[in-house]
Every structure is written in C-alpha cells, then in structure tokens.
C-alpha cells in the first residue's frame, strides 16, 4: 500500500485546504523551477476566514517552507526549488492573482 500519492509534482500525504490545491496546481503549472510541493499537517486557527493567503517562512535543505491560510485553518507547505525567497513569493502572487 502506498502512503504517498504522487500527482505530478504535487505530493499528497494529508488533506489539502480548500482553495490551496488549485493554487498549488497553478503554481506548479506556471513555475517549472519548482521540483515538488508537499503539503503538511493542517491545524485550526481562529483568524483564517478570508481568501487563501500564503507566505514563505523558512529555508529548508532543498527549498522553502511556506504557510497557507484558508477555511479557518493553516497548512504547512514544503516547496522543493532552487528559487530564492523573493522569486518564490512572486510566483505565489502570480498564482494567487490567476485564481481571482
């Protein structure tokens, strides 16, 4: 039994917050420099009742960690890429803008 399902570059081990899956699919389609995105654990938060928001927080060994907020919860995203923080943030903004 496979615990991780691979859908192209989007690796799914957990559920994905509403709206975040679409954002990640657009991000991957628009940004070939991203090797993969692994969504992490979802935790409830009180102040995430607006449209999807994502910000890049920490560098990791092979990319960046980001936090997505949507539907009253937050989700960690592990993004494998060689892009810098500013470049990744710009790519996320483009993907968010194309959702609206």
Our measurement of the CA-to-CA distance between the termini, rounded to an integer number of angstroms, reads 38 Å
Query: Which band does the percent of strand residues land in?
Result: 35-45%
The structural class is alpha+beta
How many distinct beta strands?
A: 6
Main pleated-sheet profile: 4 strands, antiparallel
Q: What's the SSE pattern?
A: EEHEEEEH
Rg, Å, rounded? 13 Å
Structure description:
The protein is an alpha+beta fold. The protein has one domain. The protein contains two helices and six strands, in the order E-E-H-E-E-E-E-H. The chain has a four-stranded antiparallel β-sheet, covered by helices on one side. Strand 5 and strand 6 (73-81) form a beta hairpin. Helix 1 (20-30) crosses helix 2 (85-99). The longest helix has 15 residues, at 85-99. The protein is globular.
């Amino acid at each position: 039994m496979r615990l991780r399902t691979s859908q192209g570059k989007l690796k799914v081990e957990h559920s994905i917050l509403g709206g975040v899956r679409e954002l990640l699919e657009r991000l991957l389609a628009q940004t070939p420099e991203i090797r993969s995105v692994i969504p992490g654990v979802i935790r409830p938060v009180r102040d995430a009742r607006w449209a999807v928001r994502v910000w890049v927080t920490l560098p990791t060994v092979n990319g960046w960690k980001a936090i997505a907020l949507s539907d009253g919860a937050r989700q960690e995203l592990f993004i494998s890429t060689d892009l810098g923080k500013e470049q990744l943030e710009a790519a996320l903004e483009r993907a968010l803008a194309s959702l609206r």
